Amino acid sequence: MTDAQTKLYGIIGNPVRHSLSPVIHNTAFKRMGLNAAYLAFEVESLEEAIRGIRGLGIQGVSVTIPFKTQVIPFLDEVEPVAEKIKAVNTIANEGGRLVGYNTDWRGALGALEEEVDLKGKKVLLLGAGGAARAIGFGLKEKGSQVIISNRSPDKANELAKDLGFVYQPLLSINEPKIDVIINATSVGMSPHNGESPLHKNVLKEGMKVMDIVYEPLKTKLLQEAEERGCRTINGLEMLARQGAGQIEIWTGRKPDIEEIKEDLRRALVRK
Ligand code: ATR
What separation in Å is there between the alpha carbon of 16 and the centre of ligand 1? Predict the structure, then answer.
């Protein structure tokens, strides 16, 4: 039940009506016995939205497309990692000061590290957008050797240069020793279920393959990876972990990731 004590949280983005974040947060808040509510705000003017957060004392806000980078100048403080990634996905209202964080990279890395020790591993990272940038930063921290590939070479070259990685055009990838492949593009996302960002010949037995796309849960890439004997990590892992990271920042308490994944699975079935 909401009452005069209820703390308000939310997500700002555009579009945002398809977001699963309200499911993650409201269900977790309830389970944790917190008097809090989380709403989706489809925002036209970022500046006005930030003023609203301050004016209404909204306690915490998730930030999604297209505002993750644009939001930075409006904040009072940004954690150094988020500043380096140039993307904030979480705002905490800390006594009137808006502080920006990034839980995407920790979410992705947490999911990968369940399966593999990333230090020194050869990783093929597909994509050069915000998600790829966050994951690439994490891989650098972990000491992986990363090849970046992307449809637009300019963006990939820029990201490779920023992080000290190697860029290779997708079609020229013929590297037998890849340990981990990560799809950080939107290729394969519903309704384009039949597409994979990668030719299946690149997939070899024993590789770990992670997809950030969670709709469908088993993308064509993960289906083909499974058929070739790879270990797969689906998009729910990163999604659940980035949300759990936000709850920890906002409340100081760690929610149960397995329960969040179960909530998300149920929500995806209902959709
Ligand atoms: P996000 O913040 O989720 O990373 P983004 O910044 O828009 O979103 O990045 C989307 C990524 O998916 C980019 O790497 C994009 O490739 P380009 O840099 O060439 O645009 C990739 N992407 C999206 N649609 C694609 C498609 N149909 N084929 C190949 N790559 C695609």
Answer: 18
